[in-house]
């Protein structure tokens, strides 16, 4: 983080990463930014508690919280999902209890940046590559169609 700051990184409002304690502390201390747990890493952890036959439903359940329009609705939905999971998948419910604030940070900490955070927090490397490929092959006024 210090290296990034020395190279001129300024004004970061939200940094998304895995839940490494040292990294979380450095983000807050060095950059003064809000930290959010990466959705992809969280979902990997969550799906590890689900059996093979439960993974799709668990993914869909958790995804309903991310689809909410505001922080209050997202937290309400998150709690409902955790409570529904508790009898069937108690370890998932505990993970959700512990991760709620970290995973939904983009909605609660700075509402003004929440809309711009939606796409990056849902992407992963393969999505970024697909996006780059689509942009590079897109129609250009200087190229004939």
Verbal overview:
Residues 114-124 and 127-145 have low confidence and may be disordered. This protein has one domain (2-114). It has 145 residues and is mainly α. It is built from nine helices and two strands; from the N terminus they run αβαβααααααα. The radius of gyration is 18 Å and the shape is elongated. The N and C termini lie far apart (44 Å). A two-stranded parallel ribbon has the order 1-2.
Features:
mainly alpha, elongated
Can I get a quick summary?
By secondary structure, this protein is mostly helical. Helix content is 63%, strand content 6%. The longest helix has 15 residues, at 71-85.
SSE order and pairing:
Layout: H1 2-6, E1 14-17, H2 21-31, E2 34-37, H3 39-48, H4 55-66, H5 71-85, H6 90-103, H7 105-108, H8 114-122, H9 125-136
Parallel strand pairs: 1-2
Helix pairs in contact: 3-4, 3-6, 4-5, 5-6
State the helical fraction: 55-70%
Could you list the spans in which at least 5 consecutive residues all have pLDDT below 50?
Answer: 114-124, 127-145
Mean pLDDT: 76
Radius of gyration: 18 Å
Structural class: mainly alpha
Order of helices and strands: HEHEHHHHHHH
Largest sheet: 2 strands, parallel
Distance linking N and C termini: 44 Å
Secondary structure tally, helices: 9
The outline comes out as elongated
